[in-house]
Amino acid sequence: MERPRSGCPVNLAVELLGDGWSLLVLRDVMFADRHTFGELHTGSPEGIATNMLADRLHKLTRAGLLTREPVPGHKQKVHYRLTETALDLFPVLLAMAAFSLRHLHPDPELAAFARDLQEGGPEREAEVLARIRRANGLAEPRPAGAA
Amino acid sequence: MERPRSGCPVNLAVELLGDGWSLLVLRDVMFADRHTFGELHTGSPEGIATNMLADRLHKLTRAGLLTREPVPGHKQKVHYRLTETALDLFPVLLAMAAFSLRHLHPDPELAAFARDLQEGGPEREAEVLARIRRANGLAEPRPAGAA
User: Fold this and answer.
1) CA distance B51 to A110
2) Which residues of B touch A94 (CB under 8 A)?
3) A97 close to B (CB below 8 A)
4) Closest CA to B93 of A111, A66, A12
5) Model-level pTM?
6) Could you report the predicted ipTM of this complex, rounded to two decimals?
7) pLDDT tens digits for range B32-59
8) Nearest-angstrom CA–CA distance, B104 and B8
9) For B84, nearest residue in chain A (alpha carbons)
10) Is A112 part of the contact surface with chain B (CB cutoff 8 Å)?
């Protein structure tokens, strides 16, 4: 990050993620299993433009939220995956979705997953997190108390 | 809100709040007890410009997140207060702050309050929420199960 406007924790998160697109790209990698430029572009419910997508992928990779790995055997094809750091944005995305479900009248179809997650409680959240870990090549965390 | 890019719950929250300043204005009303234009301008740790602040106050008021009331006996003086809807952004701001505390190296002094809130758990959160309610003229919520 360039020199921040202030060192307030809320501001640092806003400067990193509050640009109108970064959180949507992370949402798509996290919840829609989109990992290539093509998938993220054609699958975007908001119709993200290619230059915007390229810029945000670059920014998120540089910030340590995504990794960028060539796909073996596919010249020019690259897989974007969430890092452990990005996984810690799961509660932020959930809190934003919960606010929307309550106040912003989301599309029922696009909101079905968020609603399911909210109603399923901590167990369902753990299930979804484990699935996200597998899809992004992240190891299962050690159970608390394990050596 | 104008016609959203999509009805996805995360996107609706991003469109409402992901503009780089709205969440900081709400943070200052919520956690720093700033309620007038002057307080919000001179107290801003990020040095928000007056035209930006005026624009965001207008937007947040129109969106039902702030109320705007003349201060009796002070011509031209206006108090901005959080609505019940805005109070539901408390968990979003907390989740963002928690992410920052863990990954973005905030200024220790500016992060002290967020850290205290995080370490204090649900009891401390309830205390702070009750204080925010009083400062914004919002009634205490009825205890669950009350008639």
Assistant:
1) 35
2) 95
3) yes
4) A12
5) 0.94
6) 0.94
7) 999 999 999 999 999 999 999 999 999 9
8) 27
9) A103
10) no
